[in-house]
What we know:
Elements: H1 4-13, H2 30-35, E1 68-74, H3 78-90, H4 93-105, E2 118-121, H5 126-132, H6 136-148, E3 156-158, E4 182-184, E5 194-202, H7 206-217, E6 222-230
Parallel strand pairs: 1-6, 2-5, 5-6
Antiparallel strand pairs: 3-4
Helix pairs in contact: 3-4
Amino acid sequence: MEGGFSKLVVDAIFPRFCVGCKTEGILFCERCEYFYQDINVKTFCVFCFRFGSDKTCVHCNEHTFLDGVSSVGDYKNSILRNLIINWKYYGDKSAEQFLKKIFIKSINRVCPPVLSFYSTHVPLHYGRKRERGFDQAQVVSSWIEQLYGIPALDLLVRHSTNKQQGGSGIKRSRLGELDGIFRIDENAEFIPENILICDDVFTTGATMDAAARCLKDSGVKTVWGFVLASG
C-alpha cells in the first residue's frame, strides 16, 4: 500500500496523467472511467484469430493445449493496455482497482463456460515476483474466486523465467518454446479435472499454453484461459 507521504513524493517526481484524456493528476479520471467501453471485443480463437467462438478451433487444437480463452478486453485498447502496464510494471495500486472495476462491468459477458472449474494462475518466477512484490496473475485468480465463486488453487511453479511478453520491442516466444518451464507444485493437495487458468495478458499464448500442457500432462481434462486482455 502506498503511504500518504510516499505517494506525494512519487506523484511529484512521476506525475500521473489520465490514460484516457491525459488530464494530469489521476491515472483514470471519473469521466473516462464512466464512458469506458471496449468496442473491439469479439470472440475468436486466440491462436489463429478465427472469429465466432473463444474456443480453440479444431485446426489449432491439434497442436495446442488450451481449450479456449475468455478475455475481458482487447490489448489494442490503449486505456486497458496502459492500465495493465502501470499496474504490472510500476506497481500502481490505483490501476489494479480500475482494472477490477472494468472486469466487474464485463462479468456476465466473460463468464467462464463451465462453473465446475477450479481456478489457478500462470505463476511468475519467484525472482520476478520478489522484484515486483506481487503476482498479477494470482490477483486475477483471486478476483475469479470472489466474483464467480470458483475456488482458487496454487497448482503450478515456474522453475525458469522468460522474457516479458507484453513489452514493446521485446522478442516474443513462439508456441512450444516455453514447454517445460512449469511443474506441478509439490504442495498441491489434488489436481482437479477442469481448470480455469488466469493471467493478465495473452499475446502469443506460449506461456499460458506451456502451463496448460503441464496441467494436462498431470491428468487435467479441460484447461480454459482467463485474461484481462488478449491480442
